[in-house]
Design goal:
Length: 342
């Protein structure tokens, strides 16, 4: 049966991958992307989607009550999936306020509108960072859905705040929501300020590769399409009020990732430059995905060795995309596409 999906943050990394995933898998669905086009949103990422008559883009801030309510009244979504967020930990250390505004107040605003309009389903895209970190010397420990919330950065605290609000709305108002908490994603359209694309683009330019601290911090990397598949399963299942951890059992240290990228690009390790550590830097993330595996049948499908090759190849063949970002030109794309029309 055809559905109308609202995808907030769909001009960002994971949201755009989800837009393409849904348009391909459900050709009869209507997909409406709500995105404020902050520095992290890039409309040119959605160039192909914009050609699809079932896709619509709305430049809107999720904190804008009247704007979002008018849109939702008009399109009557069946499901709202909230990807929109300030997502970069380093930026949350320099400017925490915008993280509270978008990640907490924006989520509350969306949920209030969904409640008022009785929208049948809301999904919150969250992160494993809400659990804080794990020690490097306890490889037997993993985050489960029952691990206490223990955020380290203003970013993860704001995501944790949103999660707590979602769960409180479920309990207090019977709000029909679910939450997924995923580990680090990688793949096409990853903004080049995050580790993997930053290292690929720096290596290609023979520029220093800045590794924070000792480079031994561990992340649990998941190919972005596997995250999309997990969210697809969750939103098409009737269970409400549930939290699902999503992760690939693919732990790697930052240094190992950087060395692998250099090796694949045939660049010397002398480009690695150790720099001052991130404040409050989480040591290790590792997800136990047993719940989503056992209840919804989800397992990661892309092996890291294949996913990283696909990703490097994508950056090699989409230089225009990331060079536009590095030059800042991408921020004019909306004007070019929509100037005077909206
Ligand atoms: P991103 O920074 O690439 O994209 C965020 C998008 O949200 C951008 O298009 C931006 O313009 C938009 N946005 C920001 N503020 C907005 C606002 N106030 N109103 C409307 N749109 C706004 O982020 P991402 O890496 O794609 O992450 C997407 C979601 O997934 C986030 O909620 C993040 O917390 C979560 N997450 C990310 C990862 C990861 O590895 N990247 C892992 C787990 C969870
Ligand atoms: O230049 C760098 N050098 C470096 O050593 C950058 C940008 C990062 N790092 C380190 C910090 C982290 O240990 O690499 C690791 C990954 O850093 P990021 O790409 O900034 O990701 P992380 O902080 O792990 O957060 C990401 O995963 C969880 C996303 O940005 C979040 O939105 C998501 O919730």
């Amino acid at each position: 049966m055809s559905k109308t999906l609202v995808i907030t943050g769909g001009a960002g990394f994971i949201g755009s991958n989800f837009v393409y995933y849904i348009l391909k898998k459900y050709p009869d669905y209507c997909v409406v992307c709500v995105d404020a086009l902050t520095y992290a949103g890039n409309l040119s990422t959605l160039k192909e989607a914009l050609k699809n008559p079932n896709f619509r883009f709305e430049k809107l801030n999720i904190c804008d009550y009247a704007g979002v309510k008018n849109l939702f009244e008009e399109i009557k979504p069946d499901i709202v999936i909230n990807f929109a967020a300030e997502s970069h930990v380093d930026r949350s250390i320099t400017t925490p306020g915008i993280f509270v505004d978008t990640n907490i107040k924006g989520t509350q605003n969306l949920m209030d509108i969904c409640r008022e309009l009785e929208i049948p389903r809301f999904h919150q895209v969250s992160t494993d960072e809400v659990y804080g970190d794990l020690p490097l010397d306890r490889p037997d420990l993993f985050f489960t859905e029952n691990t206490p919330i223990h955020a380290s950065s203003p970013y993860s605290a704001s995501k944790a705040g949103a999660d707590l609000l979602v769960l409180a709305y479920c309990r207090t108002f019977n709000f029909p929501a679910t939450i997924s908490r995923c580990s680090n994603n990688y793949g096409p359209f990853h903004f080049p300020e995050k580790l993997i694309p930053l290292m690929i683009t720096h290596a290609l330019a023979d520029e220093p590769l800045p590794v924070y601290g000792d480079g031994k911090n561990v992340r649990d990397w998941l190919y972005v399409e596997d995250h999309c598949k997990a969210i697809d399963l969750i939103i098409h299942d009737d269970r409400l009020g549930e939290v699902y951890n999503v992760g690939g059992h693919n732990e790697m240290s930052n240094l190992d990732i950087v060395k692998l990228i250099l090796q694949k690009l045939n660049k010397p390790e002398s480009l690695i430059t150790f720099v001052e550590d991130r404040k409050g830097h989480d040591r290790r993330y590792a997800i136990d995905p047993t719940k989503i595996h056992d209840t919804l049948g989800w397992s990661p499908e892309t092996k890291f060795k294949d996913g990283i090759e696909t990703t490097i190849d994508w950056y090699l063949s989409h230089e225009d995309w990331w060079r536009e970002i590095l030059s800042g030109n991408y921020q004019n794309y909306y004007e070019k596409m929509y100037g005077g029309k909206i």
